Amino acid sequence: MSQQETCIFSSHPEANSLSFQCFLALSNQESTILNCLEGHIFPLINEGICEILERRANQEPFRVLSVGSGEGQNDINILKALTDSSWRADGEAVSMINQVVEPHVGRLDKFRLKTENLHEHFESGANIDFEWIPMTYQKYKSQKKADDITFDLIHFTHSIYYVGVEEALVHCYEKELGRQGIIISIAQSEDDPMLKFARKFPNQRSPSFPRNRDVVAVAEQKGWKYFACPGDCNILDITPIFDSSSSVGSYLLDFLTNQKDVRQNEDKETVKKILKFWKRQSYINEDGRRIVGIIDNAVIILKGFDHVEIQSYCAVQYKYYMYS
Fold first, then answer.
1. How many CA atoms lie within 13 A of 30 on its CB side?
2. Using CA of residue 38, residue 43, residue 49, residue 51, what is the dihedral sign?
3. 85 lies in which domain range?
4. Mean pLDDT calculated for residue range 186-194
5. Is 77 within 8 Å of 34 (Cβ atoms)?
6. What DSSP line would sit under 42-65, residue for residue?
7. In the prediction, which pLDDT does 83 show?
8. CA pair distance 270, 323, nearest whole angstrom
């Protein structure tokens, strides 16, 4: 089989979903992303940006566009941060619209179930309307009209890889954001083991796989204001991939290589080299499990914010960039 035929992301959505669920079950990615939100992104929201956006929110709902939402847990965490923040000093419930772009209908259905009575779980209450868009971002973008609504916040949580970084960011900045707004991209860092794997095994996973370095490059090229957060480590238990009889291990190995049925479709020598690579990237913890650290980081792009206002709210843990 060719690489394109076995690529689980482009050709086998069901296999991709199963392998991704195994990855989530064996990692703490969602809690790591939550830590990034709370430690790096939420302070930015709470300490200034939402106070500025409140001027709009008093007149109409705060609008969010989430791209590649999967089953929605990260989206819910972001919404919770917005509704629980202190920027609505009047104590009124936040009114929001969240458009969700996700091509995998099964994942979208699971997200939809999570949103039932969602406002009851938010401390300050919220009036949130969801609009479900079961299509790829590329198809969504092609249907965008000049008079469509614009957004205050757009986020790509481990989805920037699949949309074309520069094209997606430029479109979102120019066409999707309103006069003021924020784009958040959470992605793998340059030193991530998956990217090291891609460079060593380009036939399995493309070495040109986008990451936040590419997001920063676009922001610098366009002269946008942005923050780059230092990154957080996601702990992944890869122990099962070394057990050839483990179905969980096989699914996880497929996810790590971005290939369907790696053990069956690759020769034994190649599989041996792949396993050797992951063994070298890992360490054994106190419970005897083989662990890999996967680094996530975030880039936050700002549009339409006055330099003085934003700088006065800057948190010291951010690296801040300003271009006139």
1. 15
2. positive
3. 3-321
4. 82
5. yes
6. HHHIIIIIHHHHHHHHTTS-EEEE
7. 73
8. 47
Sign of CA dihedral 248, 251, 256, 257: positive
Contact present, 241 and 252 (Cβ < 8 Å): yes
Which two three-digit tokens encode residue 289? Answer: 């499990």
Round to whole Å and give the CA distance between 263 and 112: 35
| Alpha helix stretches (DSSP H) within 134-229 | 137-142, 165-171, 193-200, 212-222
Q: Tokens at residue 159, please?
A: 């989805």
Secondary-structure percent of the chain, ordered helix, strand, coil, rounded to 5: 50, 25, 30
Is residue 186 over pLDDT 70? Answer: yes
Q: For tokens 């699914």, what's the residue?
A: 251
In this structure, what token pair is assigned to residue 112? 């939809």
CATH of the domain at 240: 3.40.50.150
What tokens does 79 get?
């919404």
For residue 307, give every residue at least 6 positions away whose Cβ sits within 8 Å of its Cβ, in sequence order, or none. 225, 322, 324
Q: Is the pLDDT of residue 278 over 70?
A: yes
Question: Structural domain tally of the chain?
Answer: 1
Q: How confident is the model at residue 61 (pLDDT cuts 50, 70, 90)?
A: confident
Q: Report how far residue 146's alpha carbon sits from residue 124's, in angstroms, rounded to the nearest whole number.
A: 34
Q: What is the pTM (predicted TM-score) of this model?
A: 0.84
How far apart, in whole angstroms, are the C-alpha atoms of residue 127 and residue 62?
Answer: 10
Alpha-carbon 214 to chain mean position: 14
The residue written with tokens 């401390």 in the block is: 123
Give the β-pairing of 225-228 and 177-188: unpaired
